[in-house]
Design brief:
Layout lengths: L1 E2 L2 H24 L5 H22 L2 E2 L6
Antiparallel strand pairs: 1-2
């Protein structure tokens, strides 16, 4: 994955931290009893956001990046 510009990287880090702390809040403070469901939803949203960024040309995804 190749990010273009520092703004995209900063946006990614900000969203990552927001999702991380939301996850901790819901699972610890609110005592959510179905963590797999909540984390699966977060993964789906992350995948959709990654796909949108790829379509907009903000992120380059290569299958043969090894």
């Amino acid at each position: 994955m190749y990010f273009r510009g520092p703004a995209v990287g900063l946006t990614f880090c900000t969203l990552y931290l927001a999702f991380y702390f939301t996850n901790k809040y819901v699972l610890s403070i609110l005592k959510f009893t179905f963590p797999t469901l909540f984390q699966g939803w977060q993964t789906l949203v992350g995948g959709v956001l990654l796909h949108i960024c790829w379509k907009l040309g903000w992120v380059e995804i290569n299958c043969s990046s090894r």
